[in-house]
Amino acid sequence: MKNTFQAPKGTRDFMPEAMAVRRYIEETWRRVSVRHGFLEVDGPTFESLELYKVKSGDEIVSQLFSFRDRGDRELALRPEFTPTLARMVAAQAQGLPRPIKWFSIPRCYRAEQPQKGRLREFIQWNVDFLADPTPRCEQECLMLCIETLREFGLQAGDFRIGWNNRDWLTQALTSTFVAPERVGDAYFILDRLAKLDAAGRRELYAQRQCPPREQSQFDLFAAAISSEPAAPDALMQIMSTWPQEVRDGIKAFESRIADIGLGEYCRFDLSVVRGLAYYTGFVFEVLDAKSHNRAMAGGGRYDRLIETFGGPSMPAIGFGMGDVVLEIVLRERGVLPRQLLSAPDVFVLSALPDEQPVQQILMALRRSTWDSASQRVAQAGLHAVASYKATRNIGKLLPEAVASGARVAVILAPEELARGVAKIKNLITRTEREAPLEAAALAAQVRAELQSG
Amino acid sequence: MKNTFQAPKGTRDFMPEAMAVRRYIEETWRRVSVRHGFLEVDGPTFESLELYKVKSGDEIVSQLFSFRDRGDRELALRPEFTPTLARMVAAQAQGLPRPIKWFSIPRCYRAEQPQKGRLREFIQWNVDFLADPTPRCEQECLMLCIETLREFGLQAGDFRIGWNNRDWLTQALTSTFVAPERVGDAYFILDRLAKLDAAGRRELYAQRQCPPREQSQFDLFAAAISSEPAAPDALMQIMSTWPQEVRDGIKAFESRIADIGLGEYCRFDLSVVRGLAYYTGFVFEVLDAKSHNRAMAGGGRYDRLIETFGGPSMPAIGFGMGDVVLEIVLRERGVLPRQLLSAPDVFVLSALPDEQPVQQILMALRRSTWDSASQRVAQAGLHAVASYKATRNIGKLLPEAVASGARVAVILAPEELARGVAKIKNLITRTEREAPLEAAALAAQVRAELQSG
Asked: Which of A232, B247, B404, B433 counts the highest number of beta carbons within 10 A?
């Protein structure tokens, strides 16, 4: 029976090099999150289907992979982490120290048609800052998001953060040209404006039955959004009609951001409204500055969500960043490190006919010592590999050891074996010396050689 | 609308402490695997349902969570990693450097009734060594498995590895008391023998229609397996009837294992036959020595599997270890480290009415510097946190800083602010000094204090 299978559509096989890139991305997310005082959490890969309907309505169902367990419960693979987070916080709210600063790095799933940058299975970094009534939660989220992109080697010119505030925007729209009952339509239009040309806008206006006054105003918004050099003028013209309170709020926020050194990355952006209805107030998106409107991350406030899941009322802000677009951007900018697979410390080469001495030495090199008092590893074992080539010619094996990146080689050969010794070769300085063949003593000598520089 | 939801049956929420335990387990698996020269891989969380049928037959379907995508393809959440591995190796076999030493740490799923040590969603470390025709692949797998358990703080008395060889066992059984057509029944019986008393065995013999001669022999096997002090005698009595070739094979294997210092952990074990039909030759299980027959890990040779998935014929050996039983054992032995959440480097305390200076200093402390030439982080940012308490009384805030485990505190107070300085307090030596308030300069002084010991 012969079979050939492929990975399911929209999923990925992670061969060693691809896996090293994935771990680099995940570990960078994790390291920078921890540095900013966030704690890692996770939940199940699937939740009850109902959980997703509570947050996103019934229409979410068609975008999910759903199934039933043997108890006929409807379950779905998580399309995002927020409903799980809201469930966990709602259940534990009384016992949790506040504020709650959590991050997670879940794999998520959507049943859509795959396309560039959007797969059916992806990894999404989630950051959430809950139960803090001060503006620092917004600042710390922006700080973490920006510092993480900097940690990947991206700079101010590589990305920009467009931010907005739905409360202020609603106030500005209703006090200028949008009737209160048309606010939902206005958001629908603003969410799409940046991606449309004049003809596309006409179609959208017709679809949403825009009165002529709205149309001319939205055309002005489109100019402010899309035409970079003209943008400040068009934006100023728009904002000059807004209530003083809203303009002051925007200025105060900008100054707070500038204060902590993040001003060059962030810009008030009319087009960032975030489609999802659960956002309240502040929202933002990270946009790839070199590929117009490609969103790398996004988030905002969701002050009412924890209540919806049966928890107490609490302020909340969060954002998510997926691995797929991020990896594309890092590759395009050439900042993905070339060598991500870790090099061995030591490479064992043998001219002996018997494999066992090699295995004994590998064992001694790789072994850690455990300290029972502290319940910790006292001395970590070394990353040690051997050649698996059939040849016993050291001259032919040596290039493999050098190419591996190992700093030290252990060489076993019959003449030294007869004298009870092995050779230790420093592959950087190219110096050689002899050491006792006995595995533990040899391992100690290898450690000394590694520490010598 | 109020809702309360729970995690689906048999799944886990990972709150920060639980997540730290999970990451400790995963990172230990990863670190020791890398040290032994294995490369990490992964595949999709779901595969085509057919893939699992190829390896395990149609009966596997009832144990899987399966669903259909919008193209009506039948998919299933992975119950294990081996079919994905076999698919990946089969597809890439020609281009892969050999031998193939891979590990993975996937989340896996089974639709069974949850019970202690068996959940519906779990994490399983998988190690595979393929395309190596020598005995070292068996040795290196045992080495990695044992070294990993030692890295967790387990010792020789905490676990034992029972090993067997299905080829040798079949030869021994058929040359002594099992008719060739009854080999399958014999394996079925041996797989269960260790868990049954005399009455249970009678029932099993009846069910499998054992002739009387088989019954008395299996009773002898049961004595050899279960009764520890009598075991060597009973085992020797059984083995004395086996072909010389099989006995020599067992002895040679034992001596090779002893040779590399693993003899004390491993024992030939009649009861370890591994239920799964795809195993060929060498098989082993890691058993919790203090809770009889609780399996912590298991594996063996599967020399024909890659062919089954359309690849070339290649020798292969692998094993898996789940996180659920491992964590139970580590807790029972008291070797799980008490403090797994990482302590901050520096804690910022402020008596100032304004939050912004704290944010500026946090920013400067947490920021990395990037080196464009090497495309790497040149200096990593610090793990820096601040108190979120409302009080501005440094005396009341200091205990939180000390409890956090931070080695250094930065203290901001109005009198120092007026002089353009802040206090740096070493929380270990309890010494204090002043440093310039400007964020970058202050961060440099904090680094110096941290490096001073």
From this structure: B404
